[in-house]
Inverse folding.
């Protein structure tokens, strides 16, 4: 094949040990050609030529790096460290090429055929659907919105059943030896049964919490009959069009077992919040969902991410239900079914809206579990030796699993320069000429390639920042899972920390330590370079590398300096029409933003009833349904702030406690139009070039350490270390402004605070950039043993030990 | 051990009765004497001009003494068995230096109480109190003397202990430790030199002839004043071409078996005197009538015989047989030689004369190269050694030799302390010595790019520059000046990567240092001598013998009088009149320009007296380190017009690598530049890269122009007006392999040809030849070389993938533009085919 011939020719050419000058000229020419392609061409062949040019330089660098730059074996210390650094780089290049392979041609899918509402025959042919909402400890408030929205999904009512699969009210839990826990579990079961009844949802629990989420879902499978199973996490609220945009694919392909949709989030993760990038930078997981899953889809390799997906029961039955060997049952399930010849597809359209973990601790805990789970699969069911998978599928799974090895090279890169600065080790043998011709061009080309492929979804250096922030902790998680792959142990997500004030995360000290070390390294390098005779420009180069690491560590300090949460409940910009009953009058209003606790409406200032906010404090909002949806319930509200914007007046409304109808109304308001979320995501997807990305990193690196240090002097919030908060009852929540930035007029400050927040801060689920499934459901693995640990850790003052215990 | 200092002939000193440094000295007692002053004149010179390495304070040199007086002076010094010329030359430079001579003595010579005589002249800057010349024989020190001869040649003799000389090769080492009188700086060390006068140095032993000489003693033949071995080919009449061919082969064989770096060949009647050898070659029939030929007995088959020397005859070697084929087999026997005798050190020194042979993948410790572990208390320690790479090694930057340096340096060195590695006179690496507290280092790897090496002999110089801050003021105490600063360990190794094996044409360096392309297993190489006069033939024979000794085996030259294409690699040695203009044009030379320049010299008359004699070693020549044989016969120039100053005007060789004198200047300037430069090294590195990149771009543009100009061959290169000899090499038009190379050596007339060739084969000059053209000014040994614009790479061995890969890498390294273009083109292909492939596999995009 022509491709094999040209690839072979390239490899032959690249393995030529040509001169440094050749390399420099080739790299510069390649760079120039890439810029030309980037600027003037925008088509598929140009994309591949661009990547081929970049690969040329990268491969050439690696060839040189492997053959020419290792220290002599005669110096075992330098050689050892040099080899380590080289392995780290090799890993990065491996990941680069694997991801380029997978993302060769991300698939864009046409929407599936959908039966018209008046075509009775077509409607008849639609499969029956069971929606599973597994829950462990989420409170009723969250579940109400999710279940209500699930009920509102546009689908023939007789073919749709919603199941609340409760694992927090199992018989086992209700019989807990601790009477307080047992009572809480029983109360939860009763309350959720009532909730389910009022929302028209089936409630099911089971005897024992075996096999965690997989066990819970399998229990659901056992008691239901729908041809298609939808899995929704408790806080993943589906939009009304969820099934309309997905179910049609099952009719097209009888061997289709999975339709996965992206996980999109309404609130920032800790990094986004603390660096204030939520409104302008694409979320970390968008790269995974908008590029990688589409890329995987091309190779029939997109996999189940635990939620927001449709699965065919026949396929699940064939495989014996959801797999539960590892703690990432979702990926494992998809893995097994792919191996059995079933197909999967991915729909790149956000159809659910979820919540991110609020605190860094929760975030790290979540990532540790994903990381451990993926390593479990890698070690217990290595995709390379899995029969039934296509080669490319093996590569795809391998890439998703080996991706989680990133903490190791990231830390190697962080600390390598210090070896030279402090101990004069030479672990990278190269002249200045060579460093410029090979390393410098490689670094630039690598940045260009990443920016070219992911530019709209990932700012430069943000991947590195995420990797570093997680790396310090995941390092140990990896070690523990490698030591005993069958027995990953769980950390417990810290709970009870409040985010009502700025404070340093409990995880901050390692970051300060690393920062201090790197700062010392920078100072030493500078001192030695300036004053120590005989210290060469090598020190300068290494010092610059260390300075880059220092900037990264500085930005990370900004991440651990937790800003208070400014929004009571995450809101979404929507654009809906509604009718407001206030002061006995009906006003047609536009609803701008909505959250679980309130919304902002806009209408002409001339119709604003006199006395609004004082005389007339409460009213009701009815939302005009979209495209054929049933009229939602009435939302009772209390008037919040009133602001004038030109001829219009913008009023914030706080919802009064909602009943079942009210939740249906809220779901219809907030989750009626999936386009709202997509529009929000699109607004952030602007290409960030390398220069501005670098400047951004430098800014963070310089400024954020000062903020972190200033937080040192703020009181640490008391951790309400109470594991018994595993309850279905809504907790009293911190007072916070209702709606942030989206409201015009900046009137929030004067706004009275809501007494209660039905969506308290809590950990949730997200997807990482390169694609690993994960789930809060690993918590279900906390059986008795872990409950004991939890109690112990609570006594220790901190909610939990972050690191995996062995 | 007794040291005898002989100052015979030094009239002034004889009168005073003892030498003191403040006394004026002069070589012959006549002529103006030099005076020392403190600070010495050399100091002022150094500040004023650039410091010149390898050149003394030439400005302060006394005028050349009158020859008549010199003759008298020479006569007063008894004869000695002189030292052979080696690539190391006869100059001890810098603070520490060693010259090593393998000297073969016969059984008879090794007996008795021999003495070692050393005559030397030293730079004015050398401080006698702290400078010492140490002579050792086979590793045993036999004498030391203060170096104290700034104004005149001083002769010292060391008595050797009984039995220190053994039959066969003995290693004679002359080591100098020199310190500057007033200046302790690093740069001042470049002013330090001691020149050995080869004409008056050697072993004072009985002449080799005394006890008769046997075939196995060929290596004991004594060199002449200049360290060259005179070979007199005895002829009575004009020999036939086949006989001449055998003579050439026999000369080659003598050079080989005697390990002669410098055979000076003449044709004529029997030679007398102590040094050299007469060579009698011919079939029995041809030799009939030759005097004394009966002594060898009847010639019935291949015959090799030595005729013992007599009063009127130096030893003679008879190579004969009943037919030319038998002569050929006698020559083969001669060339095979016998197992060499000698002391271990002597044998090693002899073996290293041609440099240690290195092959792909070799790793050799420096002690195997004759380098010794040294502790050093000065500022600049230079260690030199020679290695021999395969003659078809392709030099380009596709790999690196690795020098794994072991040693140590003391604390308190100045920050500019570093180690420099020079290859063939070009700087290849510079490694700082960074630790202020000193360091013992083991296996510090210094990469030496293959592009700086060349086929055949390569000279490697490792210089440790270890100044201390105290050097600047020269105020350091004695103890400080005695403190060891640097340790060089002989377990330092040199590792050879895989070498690409292919011939580069043109490349005179490959020819002169390794005998390429005449060694290839193809057609017989052809030595073309269009005119067969004595001088031309002698020049041809010298070249053949020198090439054979570079190649390490007899080159089976086929003699011819005219060039024919397709007959094998051709070497043409001829006066320029005998060279067809087309040949010159084909080599890229402009016949018209050569005619213009050489018009005046074409009519040189043979001077009275023996031509080819060694010019008298004047002080001036010694100071300037002019190779011994490099002087032209006194010529009466018919000045044809104003001669433009060297290096100026359009006649200067364009883009050429400069010759030795300016090359070493260039080195110094570079070194000075490096020390003075205040620019940041990173900026510098980036600058260097940019420079090279832009040079490549210019080259690329040039190439395109050449392509556009289609068939226009390379521009004819201008010959410098003072050149007395031209070497040129090219692939004949339409040629494809090594068999089609033509190498031309030409001069204005036969006499100049012979004289210039005699200079050319001086090891010091010979080793600098390279490029596409080399222009020699035989009056002072100055050599200009011109690098080729493009080279052809020709396969020399059966094709193997592995070698092909390296050759291609080498070629691409020489042509970065092609590499870049190829890479981009392949990336384009890969990108497009990937696009095509991706479209057809996996799921289709909507």
């Amino acid at each position: 094949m022509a491709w094999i011939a040209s690839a072979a020719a390239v490899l032959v050419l690249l393995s030529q040990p040509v001169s440094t000058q050749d390399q420099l000229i080739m790299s510069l020419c390649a760079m120039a050609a890439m810029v030309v392609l980037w600027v003037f061409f925008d088509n598929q062949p140009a994309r591949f030529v661009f990547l081929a040019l970049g690969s040329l330089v990268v491969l050439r660098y690696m060839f040189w790096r492997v053959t020419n730059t290792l220290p002599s074996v005669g110096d075992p210390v330098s050689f050892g460290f040099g080899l380590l650094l080289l392995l780290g780089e090799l890993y990065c290049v491996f990941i680069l090429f694997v991801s380029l392979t997978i993302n060769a041609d991300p698939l864009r899918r046409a929407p599936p055929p959908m039966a018209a509402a008046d075509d009775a025959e077509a409607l008849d042919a639609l499969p029956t659907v069971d929606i599973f909402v597994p829950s462990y400890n989420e409170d009723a408030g969250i579940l109400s919105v999710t279940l209500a929205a699930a009920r509102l999904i546009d689908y023939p009512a007789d073919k749709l059943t919603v199941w609340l699969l409760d694992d927090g009210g199992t018989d086992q839990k209700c019989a807990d030896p601790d009477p307080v826990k047992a009572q809480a579990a029983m109360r939860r079961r009763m309350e959720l049964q009532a909730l389910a009844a009022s929302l028209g949802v089936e409630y099911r629990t089971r005897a024992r919490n075996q096999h965690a989420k997989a066990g819970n879902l399998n229990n659901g499978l056992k008691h239901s009959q729908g041809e298609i199973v939808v899995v929704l996490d408790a806080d993943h609220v589906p939009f009304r069009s969820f099934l309309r945009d997905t179910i049609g694919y099952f009719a097209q392909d009888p061997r289709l077992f999975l339709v996965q949709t992206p996980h999109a989030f309404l609130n920032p993760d800790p990094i986004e919040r603390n660096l204030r990038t939520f409104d302008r930078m694409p979320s970390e997981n968008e790269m995974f969902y908008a590029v990688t899953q589409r890329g995987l889809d091309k190779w029939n390799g997109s996999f189940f991410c635990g939620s927001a997906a449709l699965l065919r029961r026949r396929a699940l039955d064939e495989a014996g239900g959801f797999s539960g060997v590892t703690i990432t049952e979702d990926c494992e399930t998809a893995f097994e079914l792919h191996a059995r010849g079933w197909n999967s597809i991915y729909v790149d359209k956000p159809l659910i809206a979820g919540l991110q973990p609020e605190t860094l601790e929760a975030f790290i805990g979540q990532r540790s579990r994903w990381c451990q789970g993926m390593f479990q699969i890698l070690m217990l069911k290595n995709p390379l030796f899995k029969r039934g998978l296509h080669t490319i599928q093996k590569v795809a799974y391998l890439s998703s699993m080996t991706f989680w090895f990133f903490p190791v090279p990231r830390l190697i890169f962080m600390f390598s320069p210090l070896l030279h600065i402090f101990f004069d080790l030479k672990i990278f043998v190269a002249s200045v000429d060579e460093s410029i011709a090979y390393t410098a061009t490689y670094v630039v080309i690598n940045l260009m390639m990443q920016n070219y492929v992911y530019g709209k979804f990932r700012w430069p250096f943000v991947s590195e920042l995420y990797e570093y922030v997680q790396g310090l902790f995941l390092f140990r998680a990896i070690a523990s899972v490698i030591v005993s792959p069958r027995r990953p142990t769980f950390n417990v997500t810290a709970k009870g920390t409040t985010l009502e004030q700025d404070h340093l995360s409990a995880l901050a000290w390692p970051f300060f330590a690393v920062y201090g070390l790197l700062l010392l390294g920078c100072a030493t390098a500078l001192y030695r370079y300036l004053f120590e005779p005989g210290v060469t420009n090598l020190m300068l180069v290494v010092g610059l590398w260390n300075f880059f690491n220092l900037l990264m560590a500085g930005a990370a300090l900004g991440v651990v300096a937790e800003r208070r949460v400014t929004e009571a409940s995450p809101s979404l910009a929507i654009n809906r029409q509604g009718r407001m009953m206030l002061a006995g009058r009906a006003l047609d209003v536009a609803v701008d933003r909505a959250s679980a606790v309130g919304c902002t409406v806009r209408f002409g200032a001339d119709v604003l009833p006199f006395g609004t906010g004082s005389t007339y404090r409460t009213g009701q909002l009815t939302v005009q349904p979209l495209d054929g949806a049933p009229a939602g319930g009435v939302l009772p509200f209390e008037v919040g702030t009133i602001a004038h914007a030109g001829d219009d007046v913008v009023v914030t409304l706080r919802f009064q406690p909602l009943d079942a109808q009210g939740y249906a109304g809220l779901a219809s308001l907030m989750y009626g139009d999936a386009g709202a979320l997509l529009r929000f995501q699109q607004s952030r997807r602007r290409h960030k070039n390398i220069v501005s990305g670098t400047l951004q990193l430098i800014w963070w690196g310089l400024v954020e350490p000062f903020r972190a240090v200033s937080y040192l002097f703020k009181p640490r919030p008391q951790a309400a270390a109470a594991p018994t908060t595993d309850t279905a009852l809504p907790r009293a929540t911190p007072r916070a402004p209702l709606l942030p930035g989206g409201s015009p007029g900046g009137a929030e400050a004067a706004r009275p605070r809501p007494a209660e927040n039905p969506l308290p801060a809590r950990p949730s689920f997200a997807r990482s950039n390169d694609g690993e499934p994960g789930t809060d459901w690993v918590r279900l693995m906390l059986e008795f043993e872990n409950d004991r640990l939890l109690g112990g850790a609570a006594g220790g003052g901190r909610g939990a030990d972050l690191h995996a215990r062995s | 051990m007794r040291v005898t200092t002989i100052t015979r002939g030094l009239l002034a000193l004889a009168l005073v009765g003892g030498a003191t440094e403040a006394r004026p000295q002069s070589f012959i007692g006549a002529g103006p004497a030099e005076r020392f002053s403190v600070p010495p004149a050399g100091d002022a010179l150094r500040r004023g001009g650039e410091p010149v390495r390898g050149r003394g304070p030439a400005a302060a040199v006394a005028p050349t003494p009158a020859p008549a007086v010199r003759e008298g002076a020479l006569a007063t010094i008894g004869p000695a068995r002189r030292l052979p010329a080696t690539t190391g030359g006869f100059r001890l430079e810098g603070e520490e230096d060693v010259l090593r001579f393998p000297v073969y003595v016969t059984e008879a010579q090794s007996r008795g109480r021999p003495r070692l005589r050393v005559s030397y002249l030293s730079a004015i800057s050398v401080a006698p109190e702290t400078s010492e010349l140490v002579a050792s024989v086979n590793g045993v020190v036999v004498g030391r003397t203060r170096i104290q001869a700034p104004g005149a040649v001083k002769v010292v003799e060391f008595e050797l202990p009984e039995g220190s000389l053994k039959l066969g090769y003995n290693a004679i080492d002359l080591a100098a430790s020199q310190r500057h009188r007033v200046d302790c700086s690093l740069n001042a060390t470049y002013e330090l030199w001691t020149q050995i006068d080869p004409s008056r140095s050697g072993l004072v032993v009985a002449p080799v002839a005394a006890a008769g000489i046997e075939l196995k003693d060929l290596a004991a033949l004594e060199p002449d004043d200049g360290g060259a071995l005179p070979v007199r080919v005895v002829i009575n009449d004009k020999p036939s071409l086949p006989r001449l061919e055998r003579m050439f082969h026999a000369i080659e064989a003598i050079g080989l078996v005697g390990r002669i770096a410098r055979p000076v060949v003449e044709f004529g009647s029997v030679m007398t005197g102590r040094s050299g050898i007469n060579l009698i070659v011919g079939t029995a029939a041809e030799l009939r009538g030759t005097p004394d030929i009966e002594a060898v007995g009847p010639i019935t088959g291949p015959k090799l015989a030595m005729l013992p020397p007599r009063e009127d005859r130096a030893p003679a070697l008879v190579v004969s047989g009943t037919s030319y084929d038998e002569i050929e087999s006698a020559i083969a026997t001669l060339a095979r030689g016998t197992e060499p005798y000698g002391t271990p050190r002597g044998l090693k020194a002899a073996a290293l004369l041609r440099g240690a042979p290195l092959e792909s993948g070799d790793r050799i410790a420096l002690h195997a190269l004759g380098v010794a572990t040294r502790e050093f208390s000065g500022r600049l320690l230079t260690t030199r050694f020679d290695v021999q790479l395969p003659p078809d090694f392709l030099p380009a930057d596709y790999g690196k030799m690795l020098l794994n340096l072991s040693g140590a340096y003391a604390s308190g060195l100045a920050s500019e302390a570093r180690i420099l590695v020079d290859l063939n006179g070009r700087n290849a690496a510079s490694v700082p010595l960074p630790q202020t507290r000193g360091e013992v280092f083991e296996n510090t790897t210094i990469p030496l790019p293959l592009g700086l090496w060349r086929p055949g002999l390569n000279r490697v110089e490792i210089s440790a520059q270890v100044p201390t801050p105290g050097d600047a003021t020269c105020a350091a105490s004695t103890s400080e000046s005695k403190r060891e600063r640097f340790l060089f360990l002989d377990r330092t190794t040199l590792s050879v990567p895989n070498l690409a094996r292919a011939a580069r044409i043109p490349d005179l360096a490959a020819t002169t240092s390794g005998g390429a392309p005449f060694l290839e297993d193809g057609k017989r190489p052809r030595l073309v001598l269009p005119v067969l006069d004595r001088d031309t033939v002698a020049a041809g024979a010298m070249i053949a013998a020198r090439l054979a000794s570079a190649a390490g085996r007899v080159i089976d030259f086929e003699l011819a009088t005219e060039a024919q294409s397709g007959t094998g690699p051709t070497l043409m040695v001829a006066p320029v009149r005998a060279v067809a203009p087309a040949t010159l044009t084909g080599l890229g030379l402009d016949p018209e320009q050569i005619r213009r320049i050489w018009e005046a010299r074409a009519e040189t008359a043979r001077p009275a007296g023996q031509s080819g004699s060694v010019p008298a070693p004047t002080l001036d020549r010694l100071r300037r380190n002019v190779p011994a044989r490099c002087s032209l016969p006194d010529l009466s120039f018919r000045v044809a017009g104003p001669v433009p100053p060297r290096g100026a005007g359009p006649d200067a060789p364009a883009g050429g690598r400069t010759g030795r004198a300016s090359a070493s200047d260039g080195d110094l300037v570079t070194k000075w530049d490096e020390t003075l430069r205040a620019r940041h090294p990173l900026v510098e590195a980036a600058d260097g890269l940019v420079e090279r990149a832009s040079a490549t771009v210019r080259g690329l543009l040039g190439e395109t122009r050449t392509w556009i100009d289609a068939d226009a061959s390379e521009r004819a290169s201008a010959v410098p007006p003072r050149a007395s000899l031209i070497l040129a090499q090219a692939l004949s038009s339409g040629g494809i392999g090594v068999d089609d190379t033509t190498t031309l050596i030409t001069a204005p007339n036969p006499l100049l040809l012979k004289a210039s060739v005699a200079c050319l084969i001086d090891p010091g000059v010979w080793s600098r030849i390279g490029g596409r053209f080399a222009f020699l000014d035989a009056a002072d040994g100055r050599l200009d070389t011109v690098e080729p614009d493009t080279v052809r790479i020709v396969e020399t061995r059966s094709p193997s993938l592995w070698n092909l890969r390296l050759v291609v890498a080498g070629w691409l390294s020489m042509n970065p533009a092609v590499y870049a273009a190829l890479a981009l083109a392949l990336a384009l292909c890969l990108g497009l085919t990937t696009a095509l492939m991706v479209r057809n596999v996996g799921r289709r995009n909507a």
